[in-house]
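Supplementary Note 3. Input sequence used for the single-chain structure prediction.
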Amino acid sequence: MTKAELIAVMAEEADITKAAAACALEAYTMAVAKELKKSGKLGLVGFGTFSVVKRKAREGRNPQTGKTIKIAAKKVIKFKAGKALADKVK
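The predicted structure, written as discrete structure tokens, is reproduced below.
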């Protein structure tokens, strides 16, 4: 599903315009990003939990040359689905 398709579904389900749905989706993504940067964790009961985890620096291999390369440490976002969401997907 693309962002445009998601906006269309949100607009139809909430009985709002596509512009309002796009604005709501943008506000949601900005709020999630801001909270993850601030506290590193965001939980939505029934949906899931977003969290920031630190990935250690490590060595990897260039698949084309086989040469060893260094991969820098970084923060990554992890999502764990809640029970309600997981049950809907089954």
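Helices lie at 3-14, 18-38, 83-89. DSSP finds three helices and five strands in the chain.
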